[in-house]
Amino acid sequence: MKHPLxxxxxxxxxxSNFRAIMEQINDGRLDAEVRIVISDVENAxxxxxxxxxxxxxxxxxxxxxxxxxxxxxxxxxxxxxxxASVELVILAxxxxxxxxxxxxxxxxxxxxxxxxLLPKFPGLEAWKQALAAGETVTGCTVHYVDAGVDTGKxxxxxxxxxxxxxxxxxxxxxxxxxxxxxxxxxxxxxxARFRGLR
Length: 198
Ligand code: GAR
Prior knowledge:
The chain is of the alpha/beta class. It has a single domain, classed as Rossmann fold, CATH 3.40.50. Helix content is about 40%, strand content about 20%. The protein has a seven-stranded mixed β-sheet with strand order 3-2-1-4-5-6-7, with helices on both faces. α2 (about 45-50) links the parallel β2 (about 30-40) and β3 (about 55-60). α1 (about 15-25) crosses α6 (about 170-195). The structure holds glycinamide ribonucleotide.
């Protein structure tokens, strides 16, 4: 029997993108199943949301680096994703760079949502970068993850206007609304393609 696309979600924050994915799955618009949520932040909103949705949510120790997990911890993440039979890994506000263990375990099987129109403004707080650069338009991007920082193949982008009196908070909130449409839509396309292949 054809099963829904099995997702594993990694996040460090409040989890609004994870919520958007869950809402579309529950509405029958996305043929997928979130098998596990993993966070490097013990009290992250995404973990309490996972509990609300009755999905296994696991905390992994961040280790001693700021921008990446330690290799042994990444190996744990790989084990957890494999045990959950995950087919596609989603970075939904995961604030660490994924390295060899995860990249090797899921070649071409990791996607990220980023709050700018890549290749512009990779890295942290991309909406602030866009504002500081005096842009009039920014947005969000869904892309495959490779070994670089926000450099993988772009799957889709959605533009968001920057208003004259925007604050970083208001702009990020508007970008997030766009993210909540774009990410599940891209996932629905991948899930449909995946269904055709099985
Ligand atoms: C999102 O805006 C996402 O684009 C960003 O973190 C936020 C997570 O929000 N990711 C990055 O900046 C990655 N470089 P959420 O926890 O509410 O989904």
